[in-house]
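It is worth pausing here to work through a concrete case rather than discussing structure prediction in the abstract. The textbook approach is simple: state the sequence, then state the predicted structure, then interpret. We follow exactly that order.
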Amino acid sequence: MTDWLNNLSATQQFALFTGVKVLAAFAILMTMNGTVQGFLLDENIASRVGAALSSLGYDIVTLRREEPGLEDDEIIDKSAREKRVIITQDHDYGYLIFNQNKKPYSVLLIRIHNASPDLQKMYILQAIEFVTAQKIDYQGNFLVFNGNRLRVRPI
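Step two, the predicted structure:
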């Protein structure tokens, strides 16, 4: 063990190793069957939400910061290519997918109005928790979360 680790108390070492195990288990859950590689946060999701989710261990691409101005069609293509779930508040994705036959990897539509970044983050975390608890596969699904209920529609 390294010197800094030896200087930790037994309780601190246990907490550190437990935290590593929890993060490893989370990473395994999020990549079950090699399906979910991460999330694309659409431009209508605050950048600080992306930073907060990244700090919790999620693989996040924040389009507002990393690729501003990307068209919805391009975001759909990026989602399919990179196997990333689009997280958005933009209802236009439903039209593009169901009326124009666009094929993203998956979309998670968060239905909230006039949401602060903190509320966006809370809804996104709740939605991810619903998906995980119900063992729903993101791939090929359009998911809509309104804070109380999660609807799943095959793409």
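Step three, interpretation. Residues 1-30 form one domain. The two ends are 50 Å apart (CA to CA).
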